[in-house]
Amino acid sequence: MDKRELVNKISYLISKKNHDQAYAIIREFEKKNNFEMICVSAQGFINAYHYRSALKILESIKKEYSKNAEFCARYAIALFNSEKEDKSLQWFEKAKEKSLEDLSEISNDFFSKSIDDWIKKAKFWGPIRVEENSYKEEL
Questions:
Q1: Domain around 24
Q2: CA-closest candidate to residue 106, choices 32, 54, 30, 28
Q3: What domain count does the chain have?
Q4: pLDDT tens digit string along 59-113?
Q5: How far is Cα 40 from Cα 44, in angstroms, rounded to an integer?
Q6: CA–CA–CA angle 71, 9, 106 (5° rounding)
Q7: Are 118 and 92 in contact (CB under 8 A)?
Q8: Cα(39)–Cα(29) distance, rounded to whole angstroms?
Q9: Sequence-separated (6 or more) residues with CB below 8 Å from residue 133
């Protein structure tokens, strides 16, 4: 199965609430320490708008795979869409440092395909999120 097929399959399973089947696919990659395909699998969750689940998957391989540009971008997108915009900025910048400019293979149809656009969004929304979180802590 190629990457696009994998992403589509995971997205489909998640949309049909077949989470167990989606996680079973990921467990097979985990058994083989196939970090690339685990990372790609997280994209299926992102495309299905299950950002926190994608974050958990990506955090499970963060130590071993965080030097990969696509990992950085996927992790940043999942953070951004999990109301952690302030934390996403450093990961978008890491992806850009690794020469990842075009996110066509990573970002779904409704998201920007430019790393620079994501960086602008994170710079704008990050401070707002920090302020909101500090306000919530005061309550």
A1: 3-138
A2: 54
A3: 1
A4: 999 999 999 999 999 999 999 999 999 999 999 999 999 999 888 878 666 778 8
A5: 7
A6: 30
A7: yes
A8: 10
A9: none
